[in-house]
Design brief:
The chain has about 120 residues and is an all-beta fold. The protein is built from no helices and 12 strands. The relative contact order is 0.32.
Length: about 120
């Protein structure tokens, strides 16, 4: 299983950013996938989950209404569309999947910094 995030960077408050996570080594469309984030001194936080087919999503209250998690099973990718970004969104963002064996895998993470 291999997960690779991309798309992080520096963005101004109120701006938007789109992260990507490409997955391989598993039957991509069959598994739910999640986005987490971790800022310095804080625990890793679950912020969004998308079902294998992409029709069901869940969001943490902290991002609900501002973030969405599209999924493209043809490309074996999920995305994190982040709008109206705030300084509190500054963190390293990770995608994650739990396989049928119960093993959780993580990508390497991508840094998002929201600052003027």
């Amino acid at each position: 299983v291999h997960l690779v995030e991309s798309g992080g960077g520096l963005v101004q408050p109120g701006g938007s950013l789109r992260l990507s996570c490409a997955g391989s080594g598993f039957t991509f469309s069959s598994l739910a996938m999640s986005w987490y984030r971790q800022s310095p001194g804080n625990e890793r936080e679950l912020i969004a989950t998308v079902s294998g087919g992409g029709s069901m999503t869940n969001y943490a209250d902290s991002v609900k209404g501002r973030f969405t998690v599209p999924r493209d099973n043809v490309k074996s990718a999920i995305y994190l569309q982040m709008d109206r970004l705030q300084s509190e969104d500054t963190a390293v963002y990770f995608c994650s999947v739990v396989t049928l064996s119960g093993t959780r895998y993580w990508g390497q993470g991508t840094q998002v910094t929201v600052s003027s």
